[in-house]
Amino acid sequence: MTQLPILDSRCVTCDGAGWVTNPLWREFHRKQSAAGIKTSDPDYWDGEPDELEEIPCGECDGLGRILTDEGSRLLDFLTTHGVVKITRSEETAKKMRGIRS
């Protein structure tokens, strides 16, 4: 029996979760911790960032998976022959294929 190659793998940046901690929040927590302020202290949250604490992973575009070379070749074949149509942005498609601009 023929086995398919592995077509994708877990994103190492987000460990497959699809999201990461916003760098602004990471820095906020670091500063509060360095100042010795505990999360139970009402003053801890003074100056918290206005943005979301968790954001989609930029490496996998929030998918949690990255195509392997074999997966990328299969995707190229399927799109070339009209079997599938990629609806994500071209930048995302490049990232999924491992092509960096």
Q: Helical content, roughly?
A: 25-40%
Order of helices and strands: EEHEEHH
Major beta sheet summary: 2 strands, antiparallel
Strand order of the largest sheet: 1-4
Rg, rounded, reads: 19 Å
Cα(first) to Cα(last) distance is: 39 Å
Principal-axis shape equals elongated
Number of self-contained structural domains = 2
Mean pLDDT: 87
**β-strand amount:** 5-15%
What structural class is derived from the secondary structure elements?
A: alpha+beta
Give the number of DSSP strands: 4
Number of helical stretches of at least 4 residues: 3
> Runs with pLDDT <50, length 5+?
none
Provide a quick synopsis of the model:
With 101 residues, this protein is of the alpha+beta class. Helices cover 31% and strands 12% of the residues. The chain folds into 2 domains: 1-16 and 65-101, no CATH class; 19-56, no CATH class.
Question: Care to describe what's here?
Answer:
- It is built from three helices and four strands.
- It starts with 7 loop residues before the first strand and ends in a 5-residue tail after the last helix.
- It folds into two domains: 1-16 and 65-101, no CATH class; 19-56, no CATH class.
- The mean pLDDT is 87.
- Helices cover 31% and strands 12% of the residues.
- It is α+β, with helices and mostly antiparallel strands.
- The protein is elongated.
- The strands form two sheets. Strands 1-4 form a two-stranded antiparallel sheet. A two-stranded antiparallel sheet has the order 2-3.
